[in-house]
């Protein structure tokens, strides 16, 4: 756990949880948890000019990420380009419109950002197996990072999803796909927050 992490806080009801333990969603209301940082301790230590020479990836913001940087966990996620869109911008009356191309992340989507943190946090707590339900992009990211960190991964595609045909990334050690409608319990496994929950609290960034 990063030294500047204070606690986990429910995004809906405000319940607080100790960051050292395993969590998925709030045990009171089922909503996603947010990381609360000791920002006062970072005052004077985390300034834009100090980022200039750092690694060109998500990890350049290590002080405000939930797990410490380790090159063995990274696949180069983040640092995706902001592309100017002058023609569309003129049509919308937005002269400085940019689009961030997240397809350059490992696995081809923004899901790499959250799942590198989720899998790393699980691995640091001794978890050996991770899993989630996915329509495709999260499945690919989970498989990539589980393989990177030596964990096994199970992905469940619920009825009606076309995701099983869209996971075209290497699945690595123990990663698999299933048409099951339920997730597996026991055996030291850990279920990540479903994509439908994580999307509700996403914020943009410039990395």
Q: What would your notes on this structure say?
A:
The chain has a domain at 111-201: Rossmann fold (3-Layer(aba) Sandwich). 20% of the residues lie in helices and 17% in strands. It has helices at residues 39-42, 86-92, 111-124, 137-148, 195-198; strands at 5-10, 16-17, 33-37, 82-84, 98-100, 129-133, 152-156, 176-178, 189-191. A 4-stranded parallel beta sheet has the order 8-7-6-9, with helices on one face. A 3-stranded antiparallel beta sheet has the order 2-1-3, with no helix packed on it. α3 (111-124) runs parallel beside α4. It starts with a strand and ends in a 9-residue tail after the last helix.
- Model regions low in confidence, pLDDT < 50 over at least 5 residues: 164-187, 194-207
CATH topology of the domain at 111-201: Rossmann fold
Largest sheet composition: 4 strands, parallel
The CATH architecture term of the domain at 111-201 is 3-Layer(aba) Sandwich
Number of DSSP-assigned strands: 9
**Major β-sheet strand ordering:** 8-7-6-9
Q: What is the residue-mean pLDDT, rounded to a whole number?
A: 82
The portion of residues assigned to helices is: 10-25%
By secondary-structure content and strand pairing, the structural class works out as: alpha/beta
């Amino acid at each position: 756990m990063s030294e500047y992490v204070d606690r986990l806080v429910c995004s809906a009801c405000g319940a607080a949880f100790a960051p050292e333990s395993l969590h998925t969603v709030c045990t009171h209301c089922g909503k996603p948890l947010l990381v609360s940082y000791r920002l006062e301790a970072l005052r004077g230590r985390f300034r834009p000019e100090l980022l200039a020479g750092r690694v060109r990836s998500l990890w350049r913001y290590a002080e405000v990420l939930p797990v410490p940087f380790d090159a063995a966990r990274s696949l180069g996620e983040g640092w995706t380009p902001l592309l100017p869109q002058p023609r569309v911008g003129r049509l919308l009356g937005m002269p400085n419109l940019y689009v961030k191309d997240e397809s350059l992340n490992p696995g081809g989507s923004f899901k790499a950002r959250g799942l590198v943190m989720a899998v790393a946090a699980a691995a640091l707590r001794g978890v050996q197996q991770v899993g989630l339900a996915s329509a495709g992009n999260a499945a690919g990211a989970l498989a990539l990072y589980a393989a990177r960190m030596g964990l096994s991964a199970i992905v469940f595609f619920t009825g009606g999803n076309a995701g099983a045909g869209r996971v075209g990334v290497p699945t690595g050690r123990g990663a698999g796909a299933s048409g099951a409608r339920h997730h597996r319990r026991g055996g030291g496994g850990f279920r990540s927050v479903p994509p439908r929950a994580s999307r509700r609290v996403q914020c943009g960034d410039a990395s």
